[in-house]
Design a protein that fits this description.
By secondary structure, the chain is of the alpha/beta class. It has helices at residues 16-25, 36-45, 62-70, 88-96, 109-121, 136-156, 161-180, 184-202, 209-226, 250-262, 273-282, 299-307, 326-334, 347-363; strands spanning 6-10, 29-33, 50-53, 80-82, 101-102, 242-246, 266-270, 287-291, 317-321, 339-342.
């Protein structure tokens, strides 16, 4: 017979403590383990009343764990809840393997888990304590370090499956921790990074030097923010931020606009420098993407003009170009640009770049 108040939590990140605290805080007995192998061993020792499993585990996938569990005595009817993930595919695979329910990603995820645990176990329990986590910043910083280490492994060997898996797992853990802690802008950045890491891990051939640079910038920014006394970029979200895109290729402009929409931002796309200057005369943008090879004038010259436009002298400007030689990089900086993205680009890289520079802009860190 299952032990009525026993919950087995399979989670390998610093967030394990958060779920453990939430469940224990309302009277559950929690057995937290870091991987699928430990979960199966614990299941053989004592039958829990329910299980909560992270879809991204270090070795055996959550879907494989669930399928194996369903074949074990007492495992066929065990309630199994899937913890949140940015990429819906990970959750879908776990659900297809026989999970009972998926927990949505938001700041209330630990509370949601306690609610479904009480309902599943048909017991009443105490109220959840208001503070769920303790010293979470240290855990988040450790995941940034591990993320950077995985990135270095990929730079050495782009085909290293273990490094790709580690990159995805630590991006996932960061997104979970920051979401639960209400770090809105940082959580959104980490979530987009998790999406990109998932896509790249599935198709490593998409990796290029521009993406490597962007991922490295992300690790640096998160590390610097988490190392401060107050990590939050503010109570506001980045959602709704207004981006100007000057791109004479309609297809590329549409793709950049779609990338901004995926990141919760709005984009105003124009195809000429004169239209871009006209737009900045009547509207205030938090960030600007510029193509270099534009009609009328180059993107470099337009950037210089924009730097003289009232209200846009310090707005982050990122060049989007296939010309990534050292000379062009130097010229992008000399003309007043902050950064660049190489073509062909991955839409999620543009989303990360926009979130990075808009967050820096709101913090006054655009130099």
């Amino acid at each position: 017979m299952p032990k009525p108040r026993c919950v087995l939590v399979v989670e390998s990140s610093a967030l394990s403590h958060c779920y453990h605290s939430a469940l224990a805080g309302v009277g559950f007995e929690v057995n937290a383990v870091p991987d699928a192998e430990s979960a199966l061993a614990a299941f053989q020792t004592e039958l829990p009343a329910m299980m909560a499993v992270d879809p991204l585990l270090p070795k055996m996938d959550a879907s494989e764990l669930i399928r194996t569990l369903r074949t074990q005595p007492g495992g066929g009817e065990l309630p199994v809840f899937v913890l949140p993930a940015a990429h819906a595919l990970l959750v879908d695979v776990a659900m297809q393997a026989g999970a009972t329910k998926a927990i949505e990603r938001d700041a209330r995820a630990p509370r949601t888990l306690t609610d479904v645990a009480k309902a599943s176990c048909r017991i009443s329990a105490g109220r959840l304590p208001p503070k769920l986590t303790d010293a979470w910043v240290g855990g988040a910083l450790d995941h940034v370090v591990q993320f950077r280490g995985a990135l270095h492994g990929i730079m050495r060997d782009p085909c290293d499956h273990a490094s790709w898996r580690a990159l995805l797992r630590h991006a996932h853990a960061l997104a979970e921790l920051l979401t639960v802690e209400g770090e809105g802008a940082l959580a959104r950045l980490a979530t987009t990074t998790e999406w990109l890491a998932h896509d790249l891990a599935s198709m490593p051939e998409q990796l290029n030097p521009s993406i490597l640079r962007t991922l490295g910038q992300t690790a640096d920014f998160l590390s610097s923010r988490l190392a401060t006394a107050v990590p939050s970029t503010g109570p506001h979200q980045l959602e709704g931020g207004h981006v100007l895109v000057v791109e004479d290729d309609p297809g590329a402009g549409q793709l950049i606009a779609a990338a901004m929409q995926m990141s919760g931002l709005s984009a105003h796309v124009v195809e000429s420098p004169s239209a871009g200057l006209a737009a900045t005369a009547v509207d205030r943008f938090e960030m600007i993407f510029l193509d270099i090879g534009l009609p009328e004038m180059s993107g470099f010259d337009l950037c210089t003009r924009l730097r003289g436009t009232p209200g846009h002298d310090t707005v982050p400007i990122v060049f989007v170009t296939g010309m990534t030689t050292f000379q062009n990089r130097a010229q992008s900086s000399l003309s007043g640009g902050n950064d660049f993205v190489g073509k062909p680009f991955h839409p999620l890289e543009l989303g990360i770049k926009a979130q990075l520079w808009m967050a820096k802009g709101r913090l006054g860190q655009t130099q």
